[in-house]
Amino acid sequence: MSPKHPIQSAPPDPISRTIHRDFPKRGNVARKHEYERSHVIEEIESVAERGAQWIRDHLPLTLAVLTIVLGSAAAISVLTAHRTREAEAASDAFDQVTAEFMQAMGADPSAFTVPELANPDAAAAIQSEFAGQFRAIAEEHVGTVAAALARLEQGNLSAAAGASDAAIEIWRDTIDDLAGNPNLRAIFEQRIGQTYEDDARWLEAAESYARAGAVKGYPLQHWVLADAARCLQQAGEIERARELALKLASDAPELMLPQHLSAILAELRQLPTP
Q1: Could you tell me which of 180, 242, 247, 253 has the C-alpha nearest to residue 213?
Q2: Among residues 115, 143, 177, which one ends one of the domains?
Q3: What CATH code is carried by the domain that includes residue 205?
Q4: Left (φ > 0), alpha (ψ -120 to 50) or beta: where does 217 sit?
Q5: Which of 197, 192, 189 is nearest to 168 (CA)?
Q6: Cβ-proximal residues to 196 (8 Å cutoff; 6+ apart), any chain
Q7: Is position 58 within any domain?
Q8: Domain boundary pick from 130, 150, 177
Q9: In 3-state terms, what secondary structure has residue 204?
Q10: Boundaries of domain holding 168
């Protein structure tokens, strides 16, 4: 047993505890219970009469309150049902456009990667067309997770077309609407970091990765912080990179990383303190 819960001696036997107690006679107890019961009943009846009288005296107010309460309950029920239907419709629209895009690119609808077409012009035309379709989903289903994912895909297609700044702008605008969903915000910050990194904008990439890694509970939190440390090193921010590498070793000592990234972090940790 844990030291926090030491073994305790058993309490005295309940029968032995009562041997030396004085009990009132049976008749007295019965009469006492009868008195208490009648007294309680009188109190309940009195309260009920006063409540009924108040309702009679304030009938319009009572009806108004009931109408508001019942109306609010009905409104909440309708709103919840509407939000559920809206989320389902948004999800269905997103899944359909995603499947159609994959097929247009010559991939299986359930594939995770988009193949590269032999004809760049054809690929660009498909990407442009479906970027518009994803944007339409986001505009039609504002406030849903599917709308945010549609914005993510719209930005992906813009980045694939070489318009990385436009993609980042799309994602930044979406992040502003995701205050209530920190994990989704972290996904967007990570994607922004990747795009900055593709353009060798190391410091901006590191800052985006760090924002994603600052979200507690984000499943990829420590991985994006490792990427942040790597990008800080590339940006020449060696001391910040070293501090982050040390923090990762303390917070997530069992973190499994690609060999080259583990080597970078180990090298940063071994640097002398300036």
Answers
A1: 247
A2: 177
A3: 1.25.40.10
A4: left
A5: 192
A6: 168, 202, 204, 205, 208
A7: no
A8: 177
A9: helix
A10: 89-177
Contact 215, 232 (CB under 8 A): no
Global pTM reads 0.67
pLDDT digits (tens, 9 = 90+) for 140-182: 998 888 999 999 999 999 999 889 999 999 999 999 888 888 9
Contact assessment for residue 135 and residue 150, using Cβ atoms and an 8 Å cutoff:
yes
- Average predicted confidence (pLDDT) for the chain: 77
Nearest to 130 by CA among 141, 142, 114, 111: 114
Q: Could you tell me the two tokens for 57?
A: 């005296």
104 Cβ neighbours under 8 A, 6+ residues apart: 126, 129, 130
The answer to whether residues 166 and 242 belong to one domain is no
Report the number of distinct structural domains present in the chain.
2
Do 137 and 117 contact (CB within 8 A), yes or no?
no
Q: What are phi and psi of 273, to 5 degrees?
A: -70, 130
In a domain, 154, yes or no: yes
Neighbouring residues of 192: CB distance < 8 A, sequence distance ≥ 6: 168, 171, 172, 208
Which string of b and e fits 62-101 if b means at least 16 CB within 10 Å? eeeeeeeeeeeeeeeeeeeeeeeebbeebbebbeebbeeb
